[in-house]
């Protein structure tokens, strides 16, 4: 998660936005590579093993964040217990997954950007007019094409890769890249997304991960500690825990000793 990675991501994003903004028909030409009129559409979409691979990719991605989600739930229910996962690891993985694969994708672009999917445009036998990535005025009204939620989820694996030991980190980044590209390629092969849908999703995920990683791990003013996050979660979950204990036993549990900061202290 260094500046070189950020620069590469920004250059790629700018190039894709400009090139496919000027020549949007490139999206159609790339989608046409997977379209077969003789097969009646996007042939891969009906293959059982292809559908299994699509779902398996999402299971793999969510498996990386599942322990952190479980640790957060347990901590909020029983704040008197320490986190089962390191505080920064839990916060980083949960926040980036929710932001990239959840909020940024499904609650912003896919909800308000009415771009039809390849399978739905007239060039591939569908009822609707093709729209460039920058044009939200399509006829799709729900669960539209721009941008790809599954692509964003697959490329989110850059987040656990960023936490790999330094000696393994380059290989982890390479594996995340291959995983993201393969998953995105399947979505194109199914006629579910255009090239710009999946690539912009991947780059958006990377930018979210880069920013959150800096916020939690790198930047001196905001850098956090595992213990600080644990204490903060204890503080916010304690009132509900204390209320439940009073209802069940009629007694207040002993108050925990809490710090006031979740960030590291720095001294000149």
From TrEMBL:
Signal peptide range in chain numbering: none
SMART domains cross-referenced by the UniProt entry: acidPPc
The keyword Transmembrane belongs to this UniProt entry's keyword annotation: yes
InterPro entries found in the cross-reference section: PAP2/HPO, PAP2/HPO_sf
Keyword annotations from UniProtKB, A to Z: Membrane, Transmembrane, Transmembrane helix
Annotated TM spans: 56-78, 90-109, 194-216
Protein name per UniProt: Phosphatase PAP2 family protein
Keyword Transmembrane: yes
Domain of life: Bacteria
């Amino acid at each position: 998660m260094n500046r070189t990675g950020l620069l590469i991501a920004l250059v790629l994003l700018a190039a894709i936005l400009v090139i496919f903004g000027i020549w949007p028909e490139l999206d159609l030409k790339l989608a046409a590579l997977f379209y077969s009129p003789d097969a009646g559409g996007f042939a891969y979409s009906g293959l059982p093993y292809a559908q299994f691979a699509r779902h398996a990719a999402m299971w793999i991605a969510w498996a990386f964040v599942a322990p952190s989600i479980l640790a957060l739930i347990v901590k909020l229910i029983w704040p008197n217990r320490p986190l089962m996962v390191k505080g920064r690891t839990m916060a980083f993985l949960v926040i980036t997954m929710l932001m990239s694969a959840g909020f940024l994708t499904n609650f912003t672009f896919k909800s308000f950007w009415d771009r039809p999917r390849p399978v739905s445009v007239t060039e591939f036998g569908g009822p609707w007019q093709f729209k460039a990535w920058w044009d939200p005025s399509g006829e799709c009204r729900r669960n539209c094409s721009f941008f790809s939620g599954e692509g964003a989820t697959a490329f989110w694996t850059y987040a656990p890769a960023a936490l790999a030991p330094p000696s393994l980190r380059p290989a982890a980044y390479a594996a995340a890249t291959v995983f993201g590209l393969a998953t995105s390629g399947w979505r194109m092969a199914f006629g579910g997304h255009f090239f710009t849908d999946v690539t912009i999703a991947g780059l958006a995920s990377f930018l979210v991960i880069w920013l959150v990683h800096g916020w939690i791990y790198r930047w001196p003013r905001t850098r956090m500690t595992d213990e600080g996050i644990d204490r903060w979660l204890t503080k916010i979950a304690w009132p509900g825990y204390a209320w439940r204990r009073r209802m069940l036993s009629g007694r207040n549990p002993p108050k925990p000793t809490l710090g006031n900061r979740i960030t590291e202290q720095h001294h000149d």
